Amino acid sequence: MADEQRTKEQAEEFHPKGTVAILVMFVLAIIILWGSVYVILLSRGVTV
């Protein structure tokens, strides 16, 4: 009984830090890639 209570408390306290880190790296990669495309377009003088 005490073991079940302890495992429930551990499950409630679990925070997926690795998932958040991967998500942040993914978003940063997208921002960097779009930024590089923007700089290339500006250097070629492309206007919309």
Describe the structure in your own words.
With 48 residues, the chain is mainly alpha-helical. The protein has one domain. It is 83% helix and 0% strand. The protein has two helices and no strands.
Topology readout:
Elements: H1 2-13, H2 17-44
Keywords:
mainly alpha; 48 residues; 2 helices
Q: What is the β-strand count?
A: 0
Secondary structure category: mainly alpha
Count of spatially separate domains? 1
Mean pLDDT: 84
What is the 3D shape? Answer: rod-shaped
* SSE order: HH
The proportion of residues in beta strands is under 5%
Unreliable segments (pLDDT under 50, ≥5 consecutive)?
A: none
Count of helices?
2
The Cα radius of gyration reads: 22 Å
Alpha-carbon distance between the termini?
67 Å
Please give the largest β-sheet. none
Helix proportion range: over 70%
Short description:
The chain is an all-alpha fold. Helices cover 83% and strands 0% of the residues.
